[in-house]
Amino acid sequence: MAGPTSIEWTEVTWNPVTGCDRVSPGCDNCYALALAKRLKAMGSPRYQNDGHPRTSGPGFGVTCHEDLLEVPLRWRRPRLVFVNSMSDLFHPGVPDAFISRVFDTMKAADQHTFQILTKRPQRLVAMAESLPWPSNIWMGVSVENASYKFRIDQLRKVPAKVRFLSVEPLIEDLGEIDLTGIHWVIVGGESGPRARPLKEEWVKSIRDQCVEAGVAFFFKQWGGRTPKAGGRELDGEYWDEMPG
What we know:
Layout: E1 2-4, E2 12-14, E3 17-18, H1 31-41, E4 63-64, E5 80-83, H2 96-108, E6 113-118, H3 121-128, E7 137-142, H4 150-155, E8 162-167, E9 184-188, H5 200-213, E10 216-221
Parallel strand pairs: 2-5, 5-6, 6-7, 7-8, 8-9, 9-10
Antiparallel strand pairs: 1-2, 3-4
């Protein structure tokens, strides 16, 4: 599963793995789970794995797709590629060998820039030394509230040229953030019928800390019932900074 996306900070998605489990409060209203349920109902063959009913929900079991491993090698035009928008590459259900093959593809497809996000930094760190880290592989972690800022400390141990934070959905004030070794921060509010509110002061605090630290800041959305319900402006501006 690969193709164009409406995610503002990337150009295409590439999903050699689909399926995941809830691991923290940011997963409570998971867009990928909702989409997977719809795709399963539509008969998509990649979303028929039910997974564990207490964690994954219908149609969201972890599945590795061998036939998609080399897709980026066929894209000639350079692209920003979000890896596994429908999963977490470092989920325990993904074999080490398959993760290595994903990295081999990213290394070979050096015309593209690959953006990986995980909520499982412990496994990321455990595997980091055995994986290649060319400059076209960016590595990030999700941080939805102050309790999960430890993921940033884990990310700092990874030798990626660009290390970034996805602070989405931001569901509480993060307070002071140590941005040492971080190159990019994406912030966004939750969307959907059960979207939790996003306070302006939380966003401004992160923006101001990024400006002071010289870290690129990207504000994705205020959120609401739909992703675009609240718009994207912060203090009358669009913040679309990318790491240099």
